[in-house]
Amino acid sequence: MGLFILRRLGIMILTALCLTFIVFFMTNLYPNLEKLAKTQGNFRMSDAEVASYLGRNGYLDPLPVKYGQWLGVLPGWTVEVDEGMRGRCVQGTVAPEVLAAAPRFCGILQGDWGFSTVFKDEVSGIIATRLGLTGKLMFWVMVLMVPSALLVGVLAGMREGSRTDRTLSTFAITTTATPEYVSGVILIAVFASSAVGLKWFNGTATSAMEDATFNNFFLPVLTIALYGMGYIARMTRASMAEVMTAQYIRTARLKGVKFSDIVMKHALRNALIAPFTVIMLQFPWLLNGVVIVETLFNYKGFGWVLVQAAGNNDIELLLGVSVVSVIVVLVTQLISDVGYVYLNPRISVS
Length: 350
Prior knowledge:
By secondary structure, the protein is mainly α. It has helices spanning 2-27, 30-40, 47-56, 63-71, 96-101, 123-158, 163-177, 180-191, 214-244, 247-254, 259-271, 273-289, 291-296, 302-311, 315-343; strands at residues 78-81, 84-87.
């Protein structure tokens, strides 16, 4: 198992490097850099002024060099200007002696994620704050979604073809087929709109960023949970129905074992193998796929920052968001593979 994990870690690092390089290449295309220069200056800048801005900020170096500097494996760029010296490892224009005292390497590996041109703050601080907000949302979504989906899937799969199976399967398909922006608007109209008259919950979750309560946080949690619940429930139902027709289940029935014991002691563990993988895949989706819900309920989390970074051409912030997204995807896949082995002893890691 240890060798398997080490091998997977090596593949993860290689994959992360490839994916981040692709994102770095796309964000550092010259049209994007030109747009960044004009956003920071003015949109009437001439080509010479754009080139001057990009040169003073280290954007004109060769792409592999810039990528190495961003990672922190190459020394940061330095440029001499009329007012003094500029460099990647310092903020603004400084005296030569200040630049000489600054670190030579300042990239992702050193914990320097860059500076946001939109929020005027350190990228690492912005991502940490917004990731914490989305993490809180993800936690309560998983608390509501996973047990509910497993319960629906197990109850539907226990007696395949029954009325209960058909009813719960229809519910699962309906929730999965309904986009978040549709279910979110419906929930707001029913439970938060004065037009209907209920006004049980708040239509926005902005206050939940500081103090999450049932009143201001339940609707966004329910909106996301409903969409993901159906997929997990359908996978659980299919897996449970397959397990219930296995030979060892038939043998247990012939021996007179109680049906509840057959389900809980014999069928459930094997039926959870496939849904476990699906559940682990929900984390990357929740991290990046809640953009619509966070925008709909005005909850400024990780997805909201992703939209702001992409819409405003905030290169450093967009790169930082991509790093976090890649890490989350790769780590959840590793956990899924290891957990799959433990749930199914027949799987060999050799």
